[in-house]
Specification:
With about 60 residues, the protein is mainly alpha-helical. It is built from two helices and no strands. It has helices at about 15-25, 35-45. The longest helix has 12 residues, at about 15-25.
């Protein structure tokens, strides 16, 4: 398996559609960033508690 990094203008609708087609065919997968993984965890119920360190608590 190989890893390819693509750079494209997200405002370019044709580029976005082409990547969506490639993904729908199962030829490529998209790596999720940390925020997307965390949102998926919340949506799927895998997150039960949130720990906020004392140094980061909002006042």
């Amino acid at each position: 398996m190989a890893t390819i990094t693509l750079q494209y203008d997200v405002r370019n609708k044709q580029a976005k559609q082409m990547l969506e087609i490639i993904q729908s065919l199962g030829l490529a997968t998209r790596k999720k960033n940390g925020l997307e993984e965390a949102l998926d965890d919340v949506a799927n119920g895998r997150l039960t508690t949130v720990h906020i360190p004392k140094s980061r608590k909002m006042k």
